[in-house]
Amino acid sequence: MSTSPAVNVHTEQNSELSRDVKFTVLSNARRRDVLRLLRSYDEPVGIRDLAERIAAWENDTTPEAVTYKQRKRVYTSLHQTHLPALEDAGLIEAARTWEGITLTPRARELDAYLDGERSTSEWSNYYFGFASVGLAVTGVAWVGLYPFSLLPGLAYATILSLVLFVTALVHARTVRR
């Protein structure tokens, strides 16, 4: 096991990660990206694949379009800093020197933090869709088109408010998990 200044943990694999270790591991975007990528793979992966994928995300391009320099920059930081820190924390294992990298069961402790980061944009889509439908219904009711002219404006406002309330409630419960 390598020793990294970022995370140095000398605990048993069965114990829970300390808050400090969790915060240290999650404080870096590349470490979060490594954990996310490893969760998405069904089989062990090598450092080259991780570096290429992360370089693509960081440069807003496809893995095929990543340049040697972009990939090398990520590869070097993964090799020297981030993968050793994740290994020291007991979150990853490698069959050889950074080949055949897999998550350990202990990495599940960080799932809630990693899920919440990416799910924010999904909820913004729900709210945008809700606002669009609300504006359309309000516009049609204001013009007085049938069947929207059958109910008073206050009824539509109440229905839209209730739907917004339920959506926000579901969002809050999802984020807390």
Automatic annotation (TrEMBL):
The keyword NAD does not apply. The chain crosses the membrane at residues 126-148, 154-172. It holds the Pfam family DUF7344. Residues 23-96 form the DUF7344 domain. Keywords: Membrane, Transmembrane, Transmembrane helix. It comes from the Archaea. This is DUF7344 domain-containing protein.
